[in-house]
Design goal:
The radius of gyration is 19 Å and the shape is globular. The longest helix is centred in the N-terminal third of the chain and has 22 residues. The chain is 40% helix and 18% strand. Helix 1 packs across helix 7 and helix 6 crosses helix 8. The chain is built from ten helices and 13 strands. Helix 1 links the parallel strand 1 and strand 2. The chain is an alpha/beta fold. The protein folds into two domains: 201 residues, NAD(P)-binding Rossmann-like Domain (Rossmann fold), CATH 3.40.50.720; 121 residues, UDP-galactose 4-epimerase, domain 1 (Alpha-Beta Complex), CATH 3.90.25. The chain has a seven-stranded parallel β-sheet, with helices on both faces. Strands 7, 9, 11 and 13 form a four-stranded mixed β-sheet that branches. The chain has a two-stranded parallel sheet with strand order 8-12. The mean pLDDT is 96.
């Protein structure tokens, strides 16, 4: 097997490359270089720079490297940006996926793993979000992920491709500091940034119907997420006929924003810095926690790393980039 991993220089993609190569899989990274870090990819892993909209380059890459399966992670992924640039998001996330699937079908590749998102659910009003919870995305980003799932499954049925769509919840942590997230778009690096700047972290609303009044979310360690991709790749490989699977990737446990910030300030050595409460952000649901039963049943996979491990590993990665953040 040789796996084409699109978006393999990104935060999540580089962890998937690491997990799959450590498991003995051959991989080729395909990335346009717009958001990732090239040094995250080991020197002995082939890397092709290009867009998923470039059909000619995709065809050549697949043929030259003997690709037999695809893990597709390349996508634009910022909710706010998607509201401002919906045409770009649909072009790159849906159009790029369509071009990639055309190349996959033309080459007779029968295995495809798609990086989706819990954003497909929108604002689910349920204690645990299952794969049958209605999908009502609230942003163009979430819409492109849901449309991507439809396209993946339809192409799989039409062209005999076994497919798996993985709906991520909130991702944090790092396998090693060098692979840490370089973006400041999620709550953990956002808190790190505030602490580094000498400012208190912010809590957006503390009057939600939750135990401590702050939003509750499900967090998954990026290493666990990468292991789930490996399990999904093996699942699509083991199908005798084309089948499809859609699963949540989470821990099935909620953590409040206040509890998470308290843990972050403890781990980072800033226990004296208290968060400040500011008004709610529009569209934030009170609680979003995954049901992880289906992936446990179908892939025999469960998350094994906890929230403290996520925070500690993410902090080491942050301090590698910003040594001044570490208190002496």
């Amino acid at each position: 097997m040789t796996w084409l991993i699109t978006g393999g220089t990104g935060f999540i993609g580089s962890h998937v490359v690491r997990a799959m190569t450590r498991a003995g899989e051959r991989v080729v990274v395909y990335d346009d270089g717009s958001a990732g870090v090239a040094s995250r990819v080991p020197a002995d892993v082939p890397r092709v720079t290009g867009s998923t909209l470039d059909r000619d380059l995709l065809d050549r890459t697949i043929a030259e490297h003997g690709v037999t399966g695809v893990v597709h992670l390349a996508a634009r992924k910022q909710v706010g940006e998607s509201v401002e640039q919906p045409l770009r998001y649909y072009r790159e996330n849906v159009g790029g996926l369509g071009t990639l699937l055309e190349a996959v079908a033309a080459a007779g590749i029968g295995r495809f793993v798609f990086s989706s998102s819990a954003a497909v659910y929108g604002l689910p009003d349920v204690p645990l979000v299952t794969e049958s919870t209605p999908c009502l995305p609230l942003s163009p980003y979430g819409e492109t992920k849901l449309a991507g799932e439809w396209l993946v499954r339809a192409a799989g049925r039409a062209h005999g491709i076994s497919t798996a769509c993985l709906r991520y919840f909130n991702v944090a942590g790092a396998a090693v500091p060098e692979l840490a997230d370089t973006g400041v778009f999620n709550v953990v690096p956002m808190v790190f940034e505030k602490l580094t700047q000498g400012e208190p972290p912010r809590i957006f609303g503390d009057d939600y119907p939750t135990p401590d009044g702050t939003c509750v979310r499900d967090y998954i360690h990026v290493e666990d997420l990468a292991d789930a991709h490996l399990a999904a790749a093996r699942w699509v490989t083991g199908r005798d006929t084309a089948e499809d699977l859609t699963v949540n990737i989470g821990r099935g446990e909620g953590v409040s924003v206040r509890a998470l910030i308290d843990l972050i300030t403890e781990v980072a050595g800033y226990p004296d810095v208290a968060p400040v409460v500011v008004p709610r952000r529009a569209g934030d649901p009170a609680s979003v926690v995954a049901s992880a039963e289906l992936i446990r049943k179908e892939l025999d996979w469960s998350a094994v790393r906890g929230v403290r491990e996520m925070v500690e590993s993410a902090w080491e990665g942050w301090c590698l980039r910003y040594p001044e953040a570490r208190r002496r």
